[in-house]
């Protein structure tokens, strides 16, 4: 039996993908050279995730926003993905990402109001290239 975690009951819940190849803005090394900051953030998010969030956290190799690391994206079918960048690989940011995952999941379109974005996430924006329409209809 499949059980969706979506509070709206319309399919699967939102997922959070954290880039594990990110290097943290200008820093090539941290205390533990073997673990990139993106991987560290991914591990912290997994550690902080509640039981209803754990299976919705995934790693991803490169979101192509390397100059703005650390990066993560919230995704859900039918919604515009939300890219979050310029984050530190720390526990506070991990908690902020989990709050954003829930806010994104609860939103109708994937848009999260600026006043709902925690300070630990300096930049959150829709992941749609300029000039690209999300509409599938024909003109």
Give keywords.
139 residues, alpha+beta, five-stranded mixed β-sheet, disordered N terminus
Task: Characterize the structure shown.
With 139 residues, this protein is an alpha+beta fold. It is 20% helix and 15% strand. The protein has 2 helices and 5 strands; from the N terminus they run βαβββαβ. It has helices at residues 37-48, 91-106, and strands spanning 15-19, 57-60, 72-75, 82-85, 123-126. Strands 2-1-3-4-5 form a 5-stranded mixed sheet, with helices on one face. Helix 1 packs across helix 2.
Poorly predicted tracts of residues = 1-9
How do the strands of the widest beta sheet line up side by side? 2-1-3-4-5
- Output the helix-strand order: EHEEEHE
Mean pLDDT, nearest integer? 81
How many E strands?
A: 5
Largest sheet: 5 strands, mixed
Please bin the fraction of helical residues.
10-25%
- Overall shape: it is globular
Gap between N and C termini? 41 Å
Structural class: alpha+beta
Strand content: 15-25%
Gyration radius from CA atoms, angstroms: 15 Å
Discrete helix count: 2
């Amino acid at each position: 039996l499949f059980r969706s975690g979506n509070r709206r009951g319309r399919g699967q819940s939102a997922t959070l993908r954290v880039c594990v190849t990110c290097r943290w803005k200008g820093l090539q090394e941290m205390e533990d050279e073997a673990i990139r900051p993106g991987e560290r953030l991914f591990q912290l998010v997994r550690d902080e995730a509640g039981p209803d969030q754990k299976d919705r956290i995934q790693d991803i190799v490169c979101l192509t926003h390397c100059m703005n690391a650390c990066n993560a994206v919230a995704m859900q079918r039918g919604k515009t993905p939300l890219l979050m960048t310029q984050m530190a690989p720390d526990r506070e940011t991990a908690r902020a990402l989990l709050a954003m995952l829930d806010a994104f999941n609860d939103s109708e379109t994937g848009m999260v109001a600026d006043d709902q974005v925690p300070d630990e996430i300096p930049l959150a924006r829709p992941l749609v290239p300029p000039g690209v329409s999300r509409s599938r209809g024909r003109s």
